[in-house]
Amino acid sequence: MAGVWEFLHMGGYAAYVWPAYGLTALVMLALLVASVRGLRVRRRELARLEGARGGRRARREMDAEEVDTTA
Amino acid sequence: MSSETATDTHTRPAGGRRSLHRFANPGRFQRLADAVIPWTGALTVVCLAAGLVMALWLSPADYQQGESVRIMYVHVPAAWLSLFVYTTIAVASAVALVWRHPLADLAARAASPVGAAFTFLALVTGSLWGKPMWGTWWVWDARLTSVLVLFFLYLGHMAIANAFEDTGRGRRAAAILALVGFVNVPIIKFSVDWWNTLHQPASVSRVGTPAIDASMLWPLLVMALGFTLFFVTLLLVRMKSDLMGARLRNLRLMQVQRGEGG
Q1: Do B117 and A27 make contact, defined as CB atoms within 8 angstroms?
Q2: Pick from B7, B68, B242: which is nearest to A13 by CB?
């Protein structure tokens, strides 16, 4: 138990070390969650729209078409 | 593969250009990304888990800085990544401007928020390290100031790239900003050598023997690898997502046009 306390105490630098690690974890996690959520939302929406047009044809078009990222 | 014949029947410039544009095929990129993401994702988890154990438990306290030296294992990788991501954006922007490779534009845009986040982390963790070691949260030292400029470059790039999302006009402006802003990267790198600053010079990249003990170098390198893999994974996920976004916009546009035409 004393070992745990000593570890958390970080030789008196707990107030600096833990916020640094905590904030890093938080920011990286937030990036990951936002990116994956965005991907899922778009994938679902795309499946819905392409399903309405006939998925097979749409998929073949996606392979063939030069993507127009400027559109 | 049906996609290959389909691509070939489309009008494509002949020669070297075609090979460069090979990955501009969104279907091919998606397949490549789908194949790579599970591996880089798994490796990211392994590296960050191992890196954390090494950084927080296995590595020793510093003889001068005590346990506060452990901040280094998140601060330095975040700072390295802030430069690495910016370099990636600058290269992608050059490719986008010169060869008009559509995925290069996409990569630059997808990387920008990630780079901004790493720069933010480098600044804040540096501040948290500076307070106990230098006695101040912030000084207008050359290194700190040039990294702050990098942070604003990222914000500017994000703002311009997203300001004209549907026209593509902002893409060119954002790419030019990224290239012009690249002068800041060597300034950051050498700021600790060119100016007499409070920030210490590099310990790892010193030619020959690094001025850092192996017991601290290894956790640092493992963490840096974890951060880099995290960036690669995230970049692929975000590019996939942006490609789907572009396709969604095309589909909606087609729907609208069909609705008006019929």
Answers
A1: yes
A2: B68
Interface contact A70-B168, CB threshold 8 A:
yes
Q: What is the CATH number of the domain that holds B87?
A: 1.20.120
Structure-token pair, residue B79: 């700072």
In a domain, A13, yes or no: yes
- Pairwise CA distance, residues B147 & B122, whole Å: 8
In a domain, A69, yes or no: no
Instruction: Report yes or no on A28 lying in a domain.
Output: yes
pLDDT digits (tens, 9 = 90+) for A11-55: 889 999 999 999 999 999 999 999 999 999 999 999 998 887 655
**pLDDT tens digits, residue range B126-169?**
999 999 998 899 999 899 999 999 999 999 999 998 877 555 67
Residue A68 lies in a domain: no
**Other Cβ atoms within 10 Å of A65 Cβ, number:** 16
**Phi, psi at B66, each rounded to 5°:** 65, -145
Q: Does B232 touch chain A (CB under 8 A)?
A: no
Å from A42 to nearest chain B CA? 6
State whether ipTM is beyond 0.90. no
Dump pLDDT digits (tens) for B164-184.
755 567 888 999 999 999 999
pTM for this one? 0.85
Total number of domains constituting chain A: 1
Alpha helices, H only, chain B:
2-9, 16-20, 26-53, 72-99, 102-134, 142-163, 169-181, 184-194, 214-261
| Domain encompassing residue A59 | 2-63
- The Cα of B160 is separated from the nearest Cα of chain A by a number of Å equal to 14
- Determine, yes or no, domain membership for B140: yes
Contacts of A66 in chain B (CB under 8 A): 10, 12, 21, 24-25, 102
pLDDT exceeds cutoff 90 at B88: yes
Residues of B in contact with A32 (CB under 8 A): 230, 234
Q: Do B148 and B129 contact (CB within 8 A), yes or no?
A: no
What is the number of structural domains in chain B?
1
Which domain, by its residues, includes B158? 32-198+220-246
